[in-house]
User: Fold these one by one.
Assistant:
Number 1:
Amino acid sequence: MTDPTPPQPAARTADVTAFAETSALPHARSEPDSVEHPPVRPTTGEALNGGMPETDRLRFVGAATRRIARGIDLDEIVLGLCRAAVPTFSDAILVYLRDPLPVGDEQPVTPWVLRLRRTDRIPEALTLGTLGDLRAEGSGPLQALLADASPRLEVRGNGPLAEVLRGVRPVFTESQVPRAALRELTGAAYPPEDHRAIVAPLRGRRRVIGAAVFLREPHREPFEHEDLQVAQQLATHSALGVDKAMLYGREASIADELQRTMLPDDLPQVTGVRLASRYLPAAQSARVGGDWYDAIPLPGSRVALVVGDVMGHSTTSAAIMGQLRTTVQTLAGLDLPPQEVLHHLDEQAQRLGTDRMATCLYAVYDPVEHRITAANAGHPPPVLLHTDGSTELVDLPPNAPIGVGGVDFETVEVAAPAGATLVLYTDGLVESRTRDVWTGVEHLREKLSEVSRLTRPDAAAPLEPLCDEVLDIVGPGDRDDDIALLAARFEGIAPDNVAYCRLDPRAESVREARRLVRESLTRWELRELEDSVELLVSEVVTNAVRYAERPVSVRLLRTDALRCEVGDDVPQLPRLRQAGPADEGGRGLYLVQRLAREWGATRLSTGKLVWFEMALPSS
């Protein structure tokens, strides 16, 4: 079937998800409705054709369209149409919409498919008398119409229903084509007669998007010709409302998807720390914001913990958030200190625009040193929860937000004892219209202590339930800001599980590296790995001392795997290549790739770090 009018040029939007199948007819009226539109009846005013007075008809149309216009989403608008029409204008209504509904100027899916979106059946007050007998007998035109209604149907391009929908205007079902259209639409064998049914196509801004069927009982006055104008008004306002709801829903969906795709799908598994996170979008009044969090693995088994908040609530804020997050990841990969990361992030924000403001907290956790190095740019301070249930605010200079320019960010080092939990968050968690930031921070500290007391002494609370409990301090209501939460449980790496040495850049140092491997693996009772690890360390250290000018570092870490790290002052990263039969070198990284579980190379501010991991033998 073709649309009644060609689509007008408009901004392109994406597809909208089709409505879910349902076996039962949806009902608009689940509870008695308030008396907003009392039944219209003849008054002493001038009536049209002895029926509904023109003043009452205009009053009804005005109130009904206002009710329909109050809806924001699709269900509210269709519900508004049903409750406005029944019982004032009709005794029952069926609303059909295209499936899927086209949005904007996108081309609708062919062939035409209509789905029964909602029906408002006969009120309980009308189930007495003759109608009650008809219900009990399961007969009667209206009873058959509602009982046999099909929830989903395909519109034939040359059928009577297609012809009525192309006509756009409401019609009575007294003539042959409209009666056949109603029969095709509802599947009823005996459609109502005598002007007791109106089929009103729902035409949006560009095309017909569905149809509404208004029905009246035999005991009531039939529809008049002027009622076609009322049906036209109801159908037009409903269709325009559906268009508005689809566009609004599409915009909100795009904004939500934009923001969520810019947040990490999964947090990395990092040695010596456990991570958990939560993100809550703002409520309906401000769905989109610029809050983000991140955890970025760094060389030397460290991890960068990041939380930030772009000021504003719009798709622009979400887009800027994505750019700043990408910038932070790039800067973290260069292994810059926290104050340098914030400095370059500040420059990037200024390049994006003079009004691009954000707050950000960047912290680096070292599991070997059991310390945090952090810098802050106008962000609320993180909270450190100890195993005894006590909490403390990490004392960081607040500094100015990102985007101000010319700020000298300061870095602070803080002890991170094993078992402690660092909670980073955005201001949406602690600030609202009813409380300031510092009151919310105290509530957060009280909640953390309360959760900690529920666990056994000297044990840390489970991390995932802890995040859920923290979100409870927000309380119900319409949040006007989104929330990002990142919790890091520090486990660290014990000194007994670390072996370290510095070697001069000379060939004899390879022998010292092998000796470090043998002694360490013997102490850790990992002699099964000795041959493989000694071979790989020899290859990596040989490459390092050949080109380095400063001492080379070698470090072994025993956690859930055996990790070896070799650092030197040469910035060029090694490249895996296939050595030829006559080549004397080029096989070191090939052996690392074949024997190690994982391996990699990362640039440092002073050179590079090559690492590999070996799986521990099963006990």
Number 2:
Amino acid sequence: MSEWRVFWVPSDRLRGGLRSSVLEGWEDLAVRETAVGVQAGDPIFLAPDFRVDPLLGLYGQSPKFRGYEPETKRNYTTDIALLLTHLWTRGKSWVETEPRDLEDYENWRRFAPENPSPISGAKWDRELAAFLGLFKWAVRQGWISSNPVTMRQVVTPRGEVVEVADARANNARSANVHWLTPRTWRLWVDVGLRGHGLDGVPERGWVGRLEDRNVAFVRLLVSSGLRRLEGASLLTFEVPKIPLTGGRYCRGKVAAQVTRSKRARTFYASSGAVGDIESYVESSRAWAISKAQAVGRYERLSEMRLVTGIGGGLKPKVRWCDLDGVVGERELNKLTWQERMLLFTEGPGGPEPLWLWLNEQGLPFQPHSWEGVFRAANKRCERVLTPPEHQRLDPHKVYAPYATVHSTRHSFALFMLVVLNAVMDRRYGLTPEERRDFRLLYGDPWFMVQGLLGHANRETTVKHYLSPVRNLQLESMLRASEEPVDAPLPDLDGVFARVARDAEGVQDIDARLTPDEAGAA
């Protein structure tokens, strides 16, 4: 082995399945780990000479590191392991790191012609954040005398003086932003998730495994603006059911613990998306559960919390009984996504998960696994929609849409801004002067979108999510729209096409399955 590797302390559930393979003499491993404070999910750094670094183990047990989200932990440990490998080739330990070492490492990672896969400025900034966390901890604990990440002071827009890493990339994009217009999302869903070909019908041999689940999830995120974890960790009883007046949207509540701000908030999902979820629950989800029950899959789980009741009121609590007969209770808002995966209810055929999204085995579908669904759909769109003679030849012509889980949120923000502007103008018939006065009294669509996204400040909404239209006069553009005015809401494809032409980063591809070179992005 020539590189550093990271292993993770297994959970009690996984450990239970490994009992038969424990090495002789290590039967009391769990007791030893408890004695030294090791917990499930802690990282273990293994050097190329197969030695475990005890200091890095202590860092993995620090409150700061344990407080990171699971995805952040995975990313940071991967970044640190790469740096450790680089230092190892120089014959240095990480506690001997000097500023020059990090400068050389940045040059290799970002600029060296010999590197076949240089990284972006944004990726380097993330790696730098991982190193900074490690070295700051080591300084506080006295393991190193100084931080090798050189720092400088800057003044924030709010007038605060803060320290930032001097090596932060100047050309880093503040966010990996992708916007897709509504018709482009329709195309991406039809081709990538429903298996449609150029003729607009599913291709021969298309299996469509869990197609209804994937379509329902994507439509939920696009119509609601929920983050991946927020949408992925919904329980069955949290699916919105009662439509608002007019029937276009249903109101739901996302629990505090699965949000980034750790504050509960209201979200709105389109009635069509809710209908897709209900169809999924009644079809492939029910089928996966019945198969799992038939083979006794749930009975073999090492951990399960059978819900016995859910209280009402402002702070509803979930009550359960586990496999050992121990009764528990916890506020719904405080359940982590990992705890939510353990919740089951007694159904007609036996226990069944309350976690909404299930895999083919009838078990909870992990939140990070949705990335794989999007990757597969992107590859299929590229294969089906890009003419063979143009594949991998011309980077300036894009025939197929490309989407990420987070681009659903960006696209939702853009869609809601345009729609709210249109609704406000149509409903109130405001003149520009009246529109200004209305904004001063009640707030404008930008503020509304900020609330829907759950952002703490408006700057994040405007700078990262709605930059395509920051400098556009939407009121004038919408008033000049030639869309019919007799519909409850206008067909805004033409408006979004104009936004895409005037702004960078917005993908607008005609849903007729014929590439529109002028509108492609």
